[in-house]
Specification:
The chain is mostly helical. The chain has 3 helices and 2 strands; from the N terminus they run ααββα. The longest helix is centred in the N-terminal third of the chain and has 33 residues, at 2-34.
Length: 132
């Protein structure tokens, strides 16, 4: 009878181990799916000098950016980017405004500077930085 209980314990350990491995594989696969982002849709997560270890530690994805131009020296450059399941931070940006964002006084100064640099001496030329 003790032999049967040991066998049941072994079965339970095997079942628990299989369940753990299954959950681990599901988590890894889910993470890989969220890193399956087209090159043009990637948002930079790292910075110059970011390593694969620091990128992944920040919860970001690490894959090389494959370029089609074979003469480029950036071919297969490692790229750290946000996963696809990250919410787009640009969705909360207010894209319209009630005013130009600066005072009327500032606008008048800039407009006068702009107008003073158009059609210099009646020639039609535009000066980017006048000498006066």
């Amino acid at each position: 009878s003790d032999d049967a209980s040991v066998s049941d314990q072994e079965k339970m350990l095997i079942l628990e181990g299989a369940l753990f491995v299954g959950l681990l594989l599901a988590a890894v696969t889910a993470g890989q799916d969220s890193c399956n982002v087209a090159d043009g849709d990637r948002w930079d997560c790292g910075f110059v000098g970011t390593t694969q270890a620091s990128c992944e530690a920040d919860g970001c994805c690490w894959k090389p950016a494959l370029l089609t131009n074979s003469s480029s020296n950036l071919r297969d450059t490692p790229w750290c980017f946000y996963p696809s399941d990250l919410e787009n931070p640009c969705n909360d940006i207010k894209w319209s405004a009630d005013s130009p964002g600066f005072t009327q006084e500032y606008y008048d100064i800039m407009y006068n500077n702009y107008a003073a640099n158009l059609n210099i001496d009646g020639s039609g030329a535009v000066v980017a930085a006048p000498d006066t």
